[in-house]
Amino acid sequence: MSTVSTEAGGRSRRGSLLLAFVLVFCVLLLSAQAPGAGRHTSLLQSWILSAAAPIASVISSVSRAVSGAADSVADTFSARQENGRLKKDLARQEQELFRLRAEVSQAARERLLLASGAALPSVLTAAPVLLMESRAGVQSALIGAGFSSGIVPGSPIAVSEGLVGRVISVGATVSRAQLLLDASAAVGARIVRTQELGVVRGDGRGGLRLNNIATTSRAGVGDVIESAGIDGIYPRGVVIGRVAGVARGSDLFLEIRVTPAARFSQLTDVLVLAPSPAIGAAAQGAGSAGP
Amino acid sequence: MKLGRVALLLAAATALQFFIGGSRHRAAWPVDCFLIATAVVARGGNPSRAVLVGGALGFLEDAFAHELLGMNAFAKAALGYVLAILSVRVVFGGAWAVGGALALASLVNDGIVSLLALLILRAPLVLFSRDAFWRAVATGVTAGLLEAARKFPWREWWKRRVLRRLR
Prior knowledge:
Chain A is built from five helices and twelve strands. By secondary structure, chain A is α+β, with helices and mostly antiparallel strands. Chain A folds into two domains: 43-67 and 83-182 and 265-289, Thrombin, subunit H (Beta Barrel); 186-264, Thrombin, subunit H (Beta Barrel). Chain B has helices spanning 3-22, 33-42, 47-65, 71-89, 94-121, 130-151, 154-166. Chain B is an all-alpha fold.
């Protein structure tokens, strides 16, 4: 009996020491990364993403296949074939729709665009969503495309309904993206009807808020919010969402709740857009400076 | 728990996490497979192994989904230790107790990660969101069901079934 309790005590002591070691290691690791957070892709993360890419892709394909099978269990064989063809058509048309929407927006602001140069969002590639995480305000997604497709950190991602977020870390064929819903995400935005500029921020709980709109604004429920292209990351004219509620804040600004246009919980594929010229140039510079 | 089984558990948890995360129905039942795997190792009563497995799984989770490596590793290593100590020193069991403990552990995991994000990244503190509660419910219920399935006398049930058929 006493031998058992001694052994248990020894295990517990070893466990405590190991726990202390692991926790200290984690704190040191976090501290080492903190100064570079949000500015550089950690090399270690990039390696892990690249190494995990094949496994993630295979499992995700299986998951998609199982999801698809469950959805179409009542379909006939011919209906499934038809469905597959239509899905391909839809994906092509979604890309086309995204481009056309941007062009319409472009035409409406021709003068502004002429003044600031071409800023039309061009689609780099379409990528499947392999994993989505929503924990403690962090809202991120792992997507199945990396630097081999020309993606660099900062590349915006979107779906035909609207803006989704931006790429943070890039591996060879897998990248990690921060969603707009993330508590640390922010995007320069414009209310289409009133042309007022503000900043849309994620609340980390699945919603968005439009900040910095003065109490004198005529913004109302249902107004469309789109990206303003003033933050150096996101292109101009991509829909973000609609105003869901307007309340008078405690200071000079309104508290505006925004319903996202993109259905984040059901994302299966996203379009990766070309990064803004500043980010693209910085990425090219970093690439050419490397070994 | 033998090392081979631990490795198999790690692989299975990672595969399952990707399987759920890649599905379009991911929000319907967002189970934290990494936490359940940590708890499975912790129930063996070896704190060192629970800390290492929790840390490794948390590290993987960070690599796939978080800006900084180490936040979930910190949380899951600590939770692995606490769960291992609980399994040795506290006499409790049953599907409800295990489910409740895992649901609480899921919320604590979120709380630790949120607090670390606040301290290191100065990110807004997001505690007890709807997502966090739903994940805690999904993780707790799944863990409870697994525990109930583990304790169910499958052999006796099968024998009774065969006897009933023979009669």
